[in-house]
Amino acid sequence: MAGIKIKYTKTERARQKKILKVSERMLPLFEAMEKSLMATINTIAERIEEIREQIERNRKAAEPWTAVMNDSWVNMDEFISVNKIITKAVDVAGVRVQQYERVDFNVTLPREETPLWVDDAIELMQEQLQLLAEIECLLEQIDLLEEELLDVRARVKLFENRRIPNAKMAIRKIGQKLQDDERLTIATAKVVKTSKKEGAGL
Amino acid sequence: MVYLMTSLPSLTFGQEPPISMDEFNEDARNQLSAKHFRTLTLVDLEKMDAKKGGIKSVSTLVNDVKHDLAEVRNAKKQNRQVMFGRLPKAVLSGNPLQREENIMKWQWEELDTIESGKTFTLTEVMVYKLKLQILLRLQSFDKSKGAEVLASVVNPSKNEEGK
Questions:
Q1: Closest CA to B107 of B88, B84, B81
Q2: pTM across the whole model
Q3: Is B46 near chain A, with CB under 8 Å?
Q4: Contact A152, A36 (CB under 8 A)
Q5: Quick one: CA torsion of A84, B146, B90, B12, rounded to 10 degrees?
Q6: Domain extents in chain B
Q7: Which residue of B has its CA nearest to A77?
Q8: Alpha carbon distance A7, A17 (integer Å)
Q9: Per residue in A94-142, pLDDT tens?
């Protein structure tokens, strides 16, 4: 408030009251937005954790047979790679983010002589790659949501620490000044009246 | 042929390969006639084509296995029971590694049958090469390297960063 010049007028008081009214109405909305964003980020973080656990479960389930993936007759790179991660834009807690849809794979079908384990490896790798792609999308969502959360928190702080207290102080000061002015006017009027009476009595 | 076969170490399924394929080929080149060596080079369990030569019984074995593998894939697609032509159904039991080992063990036994009674013949040399291939392939099944292959496909960017 220090350094801000206040116009001690009724118009300014009305303007400050309007600012206060709007700010007090906006603050709960931003607070709700902040809570919603935090809850959404937590939910996404939990989902990421779940997916990571799933990836680990898959890895452990395959552990007894991963040795075969080093088969000197097979080059797994030839069979599977990610072409593209397909996403769709959605609004999450008011923020536009990309939601994971599916992974478009480049898969070469095993030939007749290809060892059978390659089919299982392709399935496992597809599953793991899909889960990792979903994590990638969710991490990007968290980045965007955290950016928005910082913005919302800055707004909440602005309303809580600046706008509302400033408006309240301005209204109070203007009120006091206007009251003082009114009293001064009345007092001056009384003095003038008394002086006139005394003048008339002489 | 006799000298070659007596000079080669014996092979047992599941053992560490006692010689490399290069060593075997070198010995064979030195001790076989050019014609026999050419025939030997056609015998390859991994790449052999029944039409290209080698021993008929071995190329039939390779082809039958190919057809049976195709049958496993078709049966899975069509959600029906597998109807094997040659492979025993038991080979399908266990995880993918065990399945592969079962198939290789069965191939080994089939090769035993093919070579029986054919001591010191080209057939025995060919079977020796195929058995050596089986051992070398079995040896390549390595848990930590396999895990690296999985990681390299599943998370290639991470792997590159690690390098």
A1: B88
A2: 0.82
A3: yes
A4: no
A5: 150
A6: 2-60+103-162
A7: B153
A8: 14
A9: 899 999 999 999 999 988 889 999 999 999 999 999 999 999 999 999 9
